Amino acid sequence: GINAAYMGIVVAVDSRASMGQYVASSNVQKILEINDVLLGTMAGGAADCQYWERVLGRECRLWELRNKEKITVAAASKILGNITYAYRSHGLSMGTMIAGVDKHGFGLFYVDSEGMRLKSHLFSVGSGSIYAYGILDAGYKWDLTVEEACELGRRAIYHATHRDAGSGGRVTVAHIHSKGWTKVSVDDVHDLHYNVYNKK
């Protein structure tokens, strides 16, 4: 997740699910829609992330009905953090980003299965995150344009899939802007490797 100044937040993910050494799927949707202005991402246990982020979507809707306004990104991430903290000794495996826009502006939070919740302008989560951080830390600037941020996210995920056996499939990039979120691109990592980043 990349918070690009006032232009919004860019979220980039791969699509591989693994079971040990076995590639279980190359078509997992790791960007999860919480509502029309909030997105979650998936790392760790696919079932845990899908289930609890669906629960979060329900809780956000109930909050909206009670308070007659959209929930803030901070409050949504706090709800998920409270849930994971309560279940921290029950064997959940989750590393997720909660990203969105609200009345205060753009928000990007990291929440994991230990109940940890962090706010920052840049996160990378999952088995390939160390490789992605190498690209992100080298290329991140506060005043990135949306196009630059999308390309940085895409390149970071590509390099993670190249070095990490647990990452692969397709790179999906989404942009969170003032009116909600938009899916920007979906690229097969093989196409990126042979046609974009390693073109001879």
Write a concise keyword list for the protein shown above:
single chain; 200 residues; alpha+beta; five-stranded antiparallel β-sheet; four-stranded antiparallel β-sheet; 30% strand
Give structural notes.
The protein has 200 residues and is α+β, with helices and mostly antiparallel strands. The mean pLDDT is 94. The two termini are 30 Å apart. A hairpin with a 4-residue loop joins strand 8 (105-112) and strand 9 (117-119). A 5-stranded antiparallel sheet has the order 5-6-7-8-9, covered by helices on one side. The protein has a 4-stranded antiparallel sheet with strand order 1-2-10-11. The protein has a two-stranded antiparallel ribbon with strand order 3-4. Helices cover 37% and strands 30% of the residues. It contains 5 helices and 11 strands. The protein has helices at 46-67, 73-86, 129-139, 146-163, 189-197; strands at residues 2-4, 8-13, 17-19, 22-25, 31-35, 38-41, 95-102, 105-112, 117-119, 170-177, 180-188.
Structural class computed from helices and strand pairing = alpha+beta
- The separation of the N and C termini measures 30 Å
Characterize the largest beta sheet: strand count, sense, and whether it forms a barrel: 5 strands, antiparallel
For the largest sheet, list the strands in their spatial order. Answer: 5-6-7-8-9
The total count of strands amounts to 11
How would the global form be characterised? globular
- Total helical segments: 5
Radius of gyration: 16 Å
Please give the share of residues in helix: 25-40%
Uncertain residue segments: none
Strand content: 25-35%
Average pLDDT confidence is 94
**Helix and strand sequence:** EEEEEEHHEEEHHEEH
